[in-house]
Amino acid sequence: MRKWVVPITLFCMFIGFFTMQAIKVQSATLAVNSDNRNEVLISLITNLEAETAAQEAKLTSLRQQTEQIISQSATGENQLATLQVELFNQQILAGLTPLVGPGIIISLDDYAAGLAAAPNEDANRFIIHYDKLLNIVNDLRSANAEAISINGQRIIASSEIRCVGNVILVNTTRLAPPFLISAIGDPAAFEAAINSSVSYETLRVAGFPVSYQLFADTAPTLVTIPAYTGSFPTANLKIVEMEG
Fold this sequence. Notes:
Shape: elongated
Helix content: 40-55%
CATH topology of the largest domain: Alpha-Beta Plaits
CATH superfamily of the largest domain: Protein of unknown function DUF881
CATH architecture of the largest domain: 2-Layer Sandwich
Strand order of the largest sheet: 4-3-8-2-9
Radius of gyration: 49 Å
Low-confidence stretches: 1-7
Order of helices and strands: HEEHHEEEEEEHHEE
Number of helices: 5
Mean pLDDT: 79
CATH class of the largest domain: Alpha Beta
Structural class: alpha+beta
């Protein structure tokens, strides 16, 4: 047994030595791995912080863009509302909108009684001619009429009141008596205009059945003017190009 003591002792010493070396290596390795993990964690934290900062910057930018879009949207809505009001006003001026308000309605009819009493007379003496309508419309315009119609035909800037033979045309539409001239505006100004109208007075004195009715703001019924439904001549119109 004694001869095995030395070898076994030496073997145990070698085993102990290698075990201690292995423990040292493992401890060193663990130390290295721990350092690496710390470095990795530090790197991850640093990257996350950078990414968070980038996301916060992006979020701030998006908020600013959103606020800008909302502001532009509000500005656009205000501009759109202004343009809609302007468009509506232009439609009124162009006669494209039906209107109602205070004003006057003038009734003019042929002098049938005079024609019957004088069958051999010239019939043209007892009928309403287009120039009488045109002159009365101009009288109303001079009284600052805001809208005018004749038998439902809206009078606009390009309207024509003319005759073809014995037929009166307004906006190329044939009209027959009695003629109702409606206008919106100041009733007092209209009354003064009609009382000083040469055409209206000539018809009245000649015995034509002419009359007028005024409608104030407080009246139960007001004057109604329809919209213009005809076309606008544009064949010769050209857009002027603005310089600059």
